[in-house]
Amino acid sequence: MTVGRFAALALVLLMTATVQAQRGRRGSGGGATAQAGPIRGLVMVAHGTLKQVSKSTILIQTDDDRIMTIRRSRKTRFLADGHEVKANEVDLETAVSIEMSEDGDAKFTAFAVKVDPVQKERVPNRRPGTQ
């Protein structure tokens, strides 16, 4: 029985040391977590309806009814029919596509605001003789 008690005691001591070592590692990190920065060169596109344009921001309502605020810089270009236009020439409630990239502070900055081409409403195909 002495060997069994010795083995049990050794096992308890080993488990206690393992638990203490894990707690020590977890608490010694200082609470800092690694955060990934923006991916350079990644371009994202948002589609929606133009709601507001100021000197520093562009506000759109996306196709899924979310409001999105995007930064505007001196490099932001507004395009209609493939030609550059002034920001105030694009009417509010216009369908636009915004090409943007993520900044270091996880906010988006637009570099191109493109007026979407007008899409004609589709008329459902009807068979002759039906109403």
Q: Profile the largest sheet.
A: 5 strands, mixed, barrel
Give helix % range. Answer: 10-25%
Radius of gyration: 30 Å
Going across the biggest sheet, name each strand in turn. 1-2-3-6-5
Ranges where pLDDT stays below 50 over 5 or more residues in a row are none
Residues in β-strands, percent: 35-45%
Please give the alpha-carbon distance between the first and last residues.
95 Å
Quickly count the helices.
1
The backbone outline, from C-alpha atoms, is: rod-shaped
Q: Compute the number of strand runs.
A: 6
What is the average per-residue confidence, as pLDDT, rounded to a whole number? 78
Judged by helices, strands and strand pairing, the structural class is: alpha+beta
List the helices and strands in order: HEEEEEE
If you had to describe this structure to a student in words, what would you say it looks like?
The chain has 131 residues and is an alpha+beta fold. 20% of the residues lie in helices and 37% in strands. The protein is built from one helix and six strands. A five-stranded mixed β-barrel has the order 1-2-3-6-5. 9% of the residues are buried.
